[in-house]
Amino acid sequence: MLRLEADVPEALINRVQLGSTLRVGAALEGREIAAAVSEIAPVADPSSRTFNVTLDLPANAGLRAGQFARVAIPIGETRALRVPALAVVQRGQMELVFVVVNQQANLRLVKTGKRIGDAVELVSGVSAGELIVVEGADRLRDGQPVEAK
Fold first, then answer.
1. Which residues contact residue 27 at a Cβ distance below 8 angstroms, ignoring those fewer than 6 apart?
2. From 59's CA, which of 37, 65, 97, 118 has a CA 20 to 30 Å away?
3. pTM of the entire structure?
4. Which of 144, 138, 25 is nearest to 89 (CA)?
């Protein structure tokens, strides 16, 4: 079993609990893995003011000893509207998506936010619950008939 050791700043240690699952990103792999917190040092390192945290990595993670990884520690929750990155079409400097309205593609200019994996946050331009075209969005025109699947 591989284990990951991370130094967590004292300002964030109260967000890490034994047994909780944290996301680990392996730099060479380009993907995220869920890892369980198995140990938390009872005292901080006096020079760095960090706590050593040990996470157990899944056996089938495909990682090797000595690889670099980053641990994501949740510091808060926000509500965000995210869509697959394929749904956002770039035309010049404009970003847009197509919303299905009455079986027609309705072009909407959007403002994007953070990219997380294969998803992109939509800050403005669409509302939650609207049906977004994902596949073939880059070939659509405003008002073109579409069929929702």
1. 67, 68, 69, 70
2. 118
3. 0.56
4. 138
